[in-house]
């Protein structure tokens, strides 16, 4: 099972970094270049373990995923329930750890591809494409952690 990961250090505390990572709507699209649409399912209005989300990637691929862990401000994990035909399985976890400079964010994904006969080649290609996308997404997250609009939205949500 291929694993791709990326990490960065952002100049905010772990609680703020975690909160930025969980933004939704226009605030999320402001920093996250991966998504074009994302929303909670089943009448959920906030992230939590067991909550399902719909995500449409910028090229149009869509998936339904569920939170398998949700432990602010340290980590969050998800698994794909349904998604693009070429993924047999997809899961990811984001971890946030305090460091002297702020917060180290490590995002890690694992996946398997189908059909089985194509998996060795598809997974080799997928690791490179998904790795690129994760690095791009994490760079957007780092920009979001310095964006006054995103940080103001996070502060407003945390004061509610």
Secondary structure elements and pairings:
Blueprint lengths: L2 E8 L3 H8 L3 H7 L3 E6 L11 E6 L4 E10 L3 E8 L4 E13 L2 E12 L5 H26 L3 H12 L1
Antiparallel strand pairs: 1-7, 2-3, 3-4, 4-5, 5-6, 6-7
Structure characteristics:
160 residues, alpha+beta, 4 helices, 7 strands
Summarize the amount of helix as a percent range.
25-40%
Q: What is the CA-atom radius of gyration, in angstroms?
A: 16 Å
Biggest beta sheet attributes: 7 strands, antiparallel
Strand content: 35-45%
Termini Cα gap? 41 Å
Instruction: State the helix count.
Output: 4
Based on secondary structure, the structural category is alpha+beta
Please give the number of β-strands: 7
The quaternary organization reads as: single chain
Ranges where pLDDT stays below 50 over 5 or more residues in a row are: none
Helix and strand run:
EHHEEEEEEHH
Strand order of the largest sheet: 1-7-6-5-4-3-2
Principal-axes geometry comes out as: globular
């Amino acid at each position: 099972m291929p694993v791709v990961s990326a990490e960065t250090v952002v100049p905010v505390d772990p609680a703020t970094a975690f909160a930025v990572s969980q933004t939704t709507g226009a605030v999320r699209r402001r920093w996250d270049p991966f998504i074009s649409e994302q929303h909670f399912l089943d009448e959920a209005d906030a992230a939590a373990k067991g909550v399902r989300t719909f995500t449409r990637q910028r090229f149009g691929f869509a998936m339904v995923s569920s939170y398998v862990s949700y432990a602010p401000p340290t980590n969050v994990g998800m698994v794909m329930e349904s998604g693009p035909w070429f993924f047999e399985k997809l899961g990811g976890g984001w971890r946030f750890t305090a460091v002297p400079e702020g917060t180290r964010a490590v995002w890690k994904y694992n996946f398997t591809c189908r059909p089985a006969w194509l998996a060795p080649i598809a997974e080799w290609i997928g690791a490179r494409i998904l790795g690129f996308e994760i690095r791009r997404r994490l760079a957007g997250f780092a920009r979001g952690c310095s964006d006054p609009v995103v940080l103001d939205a996070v502060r407003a949500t945390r004061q509610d």
